[in-house]
Amino acid sequence: MTNRYARQTVLPALGADGQDRLNQASVLCVGAGGLGSPALLYLAAAGIGRIGIVDHDRVEISNLQRQILFTEGDMATNKAETAGQKLSHLNSHIRVDAYPVRLTAANALSLLAAYDVILDGTDTVASKFLLNDACLRLGKPLVHASILGFQGQVSVFWGRHGPCYRCLYPHPPKGYVLNCAEAGVIGAMAGMVGAVQGLQALMMALGLSWCHSHGLDPLLGRVWVLDARSMNSRLLTLGKNPSCPVCAGDAASIVLDDGNDAACQSRDVQGIAADDAQQCSPDTVFLDVRELHEWRSGHITGARHLPLGQLLAEGEGLDDLPQNAPIVVYCQHGIRSLTGAAHLQRLGYTNVSHLEGGFVRWPQRA
Ligand SMILES: [Zn+2]
Question: Which of 135, 164, 180, 244 is catalytic?
Fold first, then answer.
């Protein structure tokens, strides 16, 4: 292990103690695309102890021009899972979790909760707002980047320590916003910006006080803007907006919103009312996707327990069930269950519904 990280531990800003910090740290990358590819490769190589990857997409031939995690043999595989395998091959000493799901308002908090640092590798405006708001809710640092054509920007948003994405852009634009697919992007451009993003995530993994006592100055309250046509780059100072719609108020009151992509992943899930669910056939499997403490405080008799995060990460907790088994997914209020049920449908389960209103509507609590 000494050899593996020797080129970085020799740096006074890191050393063996800094390396220990990286080994203890966890980073969640949302989006394993043009930005996520270089960022993830460098973070895994640097020995970040736990890396999570969220991506529901599949690898397509048009991705290979910039998404350097993937090769021709990966066509049609899920990006999070394939990226996870690549990272494990690169560094078998780290833990890698793949979440083959779309980030939504319903699953954002549970996906992000277990990680120290969040890296935004998404390419839609709606996801960027959602990630910003979820990180503010949880008090987590968000390493932001966006890229369009030859222009890119990177910043670190962290509610307690500086401005957020909405201090820069208070609301999602009303009109149509181009993404990389429409506007075009050079692969090396995504590589540059993604590598900067990876470096910022590494600094946040070391911790702010470590950075400040070791001469490192992450991009909190500053936005690095690059125009690669001329290689002009600027550092803009960004202050907290006192009337920011989210970070100026109480974090607990922030309501997450799917924005333009509103609930597109859960629209096909059938809801079932508590009264009807009680009449279900005896072979119906009730799947409780709440956290352990909620399960322990009461659950539906005979139900199975598989917390949403685990279901999204593994899904194999249900391997013994036939794909046509009748399944009713439930949570406390009927929000997380939508995500869980939609995920089961994507895994090929054909008879899935979710309990409307959640466990609080269930009359007989065991
Ligand atoms: Zn703000």
Answer: 180
DSSP string, 319-358: TTS-TT--EEEE-SSSSHHHHHHHHHHHTT-SSEEEETT-
C-alpha span between 306 and 115 (Å, rounded): 20
Backbone angles phi, psi at 80, to 5 degrees: -65, -45
- Condensed to tens digits (0 to 9), the pLDDT of residues 4-28 reads 999 999 999 999 999 999 999 999 9
Residue 211 a catalytic site member: no
CATH architecture of the domain covering 266-361: 3-Layer(aba) Sandwich (3.40)
Taking the C-alpha atoms of residue 68 and residue 139, their distance in angstroms, rounded to an integer, is: 31
Is 247 a catalytic site residue?
no
The CATH 3.40.250.10 portion of the chain extends over 266-361
294 pLDDT band, cuts 50/70/90, is confident
pLDDT at 90 exceeding the cut of 80? yes
Query: What residue ranges of the chain are covered by domains with CATH 3.40.50.720?
Result: 6-259
Query: What residues flank ion ligand 1 with Cβ within 5 A?
Result: 164, 166-167, 244, 247
Question: Residue 238 Cα, ligand 1 centroid: separation in angstroms?
Answer: 10
Pick the CATH number of 6-259 from 3.40.50.880, 3.40.50.720, 3.30.420.40, 2.40.30.10: 3.40.50.720
Give the distance (Å) from ligand 1 centre to CA of residue 103.
21
